[in-house]
Amino acid sequence: MKLKPKPSIQQVDNFFPDNIPIEIAEWIRNANYRHGETDNTEHPPTGLVCDLYHIDAKEDIVITDETKLIYNYFIKYIHEKYPGFWNDYAIYRLYVNIFAPKEQAYFHTDSVNNSDQWTFIYYPAHPHKYDINQGGWTEFSLDDKIIGVPPYYNSMVRFTSSVLHRATPFRDHHRFSIAIKCMNKKELDSK
With respect to CATH, is domain 9-189 assigned 3.30.450.150? Predict the structure, then answer.
């Protein structure tokens, strides 16, 4: 029997060099979005989503030079921050989330059962100076406590995909983030 990974949450500041967060922010503000989704059938969809990559896409995802570039940025800089990560894991989904001001998301997990998965959430440049009273953090439920990770400019949070979590909205601004979902290559190969 495979053991469930021990929950882990880590945040990395200054994830990309200076020019990349601005380039990504410009692209995501002009991308094509569809109505959001839900991670469990008990709740209605929230937010807006723009898929950049999905290994099991049921509909066509337009791969442009810009989306390839963004995908490759994440491959390169995740490797720099977590050497050897790509030896065991692969991206199965990469997408942008947008939440409107005061739009509440639901708690959910990104994996089921004992799947060996990691999620990364990247916080790009915001059009405003971040203030903690704006909200916008990602909340994690661990050991009967809620832990909030702020959406600092050009930061990335990595966590075990089985951790219960949700996005919180900004009070007055749209909240953009990029989710990178990764699975153990052995599991992906057996799908």
Answer: no
